[in-house]
Write a structure and sequence with these properties.
It comes from Papaver nudicaule (Iceland poppy). The protein is α+β, with helices and mostly antiparallel strands and 97 residues long. It is 48% helix and 20% strand. The model has no long low-confidence stretch (mean pLDDT 83).
């Protein structure tokens, strides 16, 4: 397995009945997102807190990809909003004589 960069986390995603698991590397910030927390709660119900090996997320790969896209989209929208707000505030402080 490849080493995971600081600030990132490797997870195994999949359902046994769908043929196994696929490894993904996600930013640790996902752990604080409400949608991802729901998935962690499901993982706890299925596997408990004490497992050997990587964090396993019990959802289909397709569902995980949709979840990841939704989280990334929300983060990008938030970053755009914050950028626009900073720009607006900078323009508001300019005075023209």
């Amino acid at each position: 397995m490849n080493k995971v960069k600081k600030g990132w986390l490797a997870v195994q995603v999949g359902l046994e009945e769908e043929g196994g698991f696929q490894r993904f590397v996600i930013p640790i910030s996902y752990l604080y997102h409400s949608l991802f927390k729901q998935l962690l709660d499901e993982a706890h119900e299925v596997y408990g807190y004490h497992t050997n090996g990587p964090l396993i997320l019990p959802c289909s790969i397709c569902d995980f990809l949709r979840l990841r896209a939704r989280i990334d989209n929300e983060v990008n929208n938030q970053q755009c909003y914050q950028h626009n707000l900073r720009r607006h505030n900078q323009l508001a402080t300019l005075s023209f004589h």
